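EI: anyone free to look at a 358-residue chain?
SC: sure, send it
EI:
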Amino acid sequence: MTAAASPLVTIVIPAYNAEKTLVETLRSVSAQSYDKLEILVVDDGSRDGTFDLARDYSLTDRRVRVLRQDNGGVARARNHGIKEARGFYIAPVDADDVWHPSKIELQLEAVLKFPHGNGVAYNWYAAIDENGIIFGHSRPVLHQGNIFEPLLRENFIGNGSTPLMPRAEILRCGGYDAGLRDNGAEGCEDLKLYLALAETLPFALVPDFLTGYRFTKGNMSSNAYRMLKSHALVMAPIIARYPHFERDIRTAEFNTASWYFKKAFLDDDYAQLKKLAPMMVSKYPSRLVIHGMQQGWRQVKRHGIRIARRALGKPPARPKTRFVAVIPQAGTAFRDRYAGMPAREAPSPIAQRVADNE
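SC: here you go
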């Protein structure tokens, strides 16, 4: 089977107790400029109004289908949706994240340039809070083609709501690993799948911030200790297969732990700090010393350059621009990134899409 010029894309939304955010996620999905979509909401044994909200929403957009399972975790919910999917491509999105209206269209343009459309597309993301306000963004890397080695060093895709992937290739890789949850290490299922796909498939980049990735205190990625355990379990078999990558992987583990430590410190999350601090001191003593010295040297170097430029009467150095995408501005709403789209480019209302499909 090969991808047609206008392939069906199945969007899989795992949802557990997601009544506060699910409708916003569904609206961002329904409003995609590419509308040959199948939208599957997989209720993962929710105990709130998630199922009823999804069912009611399906009455306004006939592309939406609601599935139900006993609570088994996000990996099993995604796998359930993938199994039921009819699309050539799968685009997962968590029930608290949102998309730019052009996400699927731009990703398809990128991935269909590969032979038979057999590849994966990804984009950058904006980090948003509970109210959809941007407070950060992913590092705008430019990795394309064979991205396996760079992905070992850094999970630059960064979340489970970004990629567009061929369904057949996901099934070939065994889908998302539900066993991580069973081992108390839920969190890196998406990274494990991306690495499995990257061993054999090319990746295409859409160089824009098209995913609104929501960070809340209750979501999975906020549990740093569990995420680090998950990362270690995912990387262990890769080190066994590719021992020459072990140094890069250990560096990635340290960088991931440092990121979580910094985030916990800035968020005044003392519970996380109490777990992370002793673990990092015992596991990475030499790396912490080297990292501290490197950070100190970088600060001294930057400060010296600023002083020298002022003494020579030169203006402050401007950062080098390597892409044309507009950097997400902290304090602005993610929806404002596309609120000013011209009418001819703006997505049609849901009601119009339903009428068009009748």
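EI: Confidence is low (pLDDT under 50) at residues 288-292, 342-358.
SC: 👍
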